[in-house]
Design brief:
This protein has one domain: Mutm (Fpg) Protein, Chain: A, domain 2 (Sandwich), CATH 2.60.270. The chain has two helices and eleven strands. It has helices at 27-38, 48-66, and strands spanning 75-82, 88-97, 103-106, 110-111, 116-117, 122-128, 141-146, 149-154, 162-165, 173-180, 184-191. A hairpin with a 4-residue loop joins strand 4 and strand 5 (116-117).
Length: 192
């Protein structure tokens, strides 16, 4: 991190409801609004961690306000913070179960051309499921592969949820948050 971060507990904000000033038209607008704010965040600010956590919860909160009742859809937010001194290359994101593309929302320290998360940078991945039906629960299973680790993240408690550091890598991956409810899941991982 470029600046010492103020003490923050990821997930502590999860119970707060934010009322958006914007009129939400669709799911893409929810993602784009978050993208526009996160792209200016960086670890030069001591509130970087808390700002990232607020944005991740804001995604879920906006999602819950827009998709409720019979329109309800599960969502999954997964954030990664590069606390190493090396670039982390995002090789692939595959939605194994779900109904959306895997949207990525990077902070300022991300090289979009080469998919590189620079030291001190962060990236949020966001996906959602299809509306539940009698034949489909509308669940989400996201697989992410980088040059340092692979991970499986699900929108429910499951033994499949895991992060595996690749052989030969010196990094450690630590879940700093695993929050799961009936309709959403929120993960934060610190790579150090």
């Amino acid at each position: 991190m470029k600046t010492k971060q103020t003490k923050h507990v990821f997930g502590l904000i999860n119970c707060e409801d934010f009322i958006s000033d914007n009129i939400i038209e669709d799911e893409i607008q929810i993602v784009e609004d978050c993208f526009e704010r996160v792209k200016f965040l960086n670890s030069e600010h001591s509130t970087f961690f808390s700002s990232l956590d607020e944005e991740a919860w804001g995604l879920i909160n906006s999602w819950r306000q827009f998709f409720f009742g019979i329109k309800s859809k599960h969502c999954l937010v997964a954030g990664f913070i590069n606390g190493t001194g090396h670039d982390i290359q995002v090789k692939s994101t595959i939605l194994l179960e779900g109904g959306s593309p895997c949207c990525h929302i990077p902070s300022r320290d991300y090289d979009e051309l080469n998919n590189l998360l620079k030291p001190g940078g962060a990236i949020i991945f966001f996906s959602w499921g299809v509306p539940p039906s009698l034949n489909n629960e509308g669940r989400i299973h996201l697989f992410i592969e980088t040059n340092a680790f692979t991970c499986n993240l699900l929108d429910r408690n499951s033994p499949l949820t895991s992060i595996d550091v690749l052989p030969g890598c010196e990094q450690k991956c630590i879940f700093v948050e695993k929050s799961i409810s009936d309709w959403w899941a929120k993960y934060w991982v610190l790579v150090k």
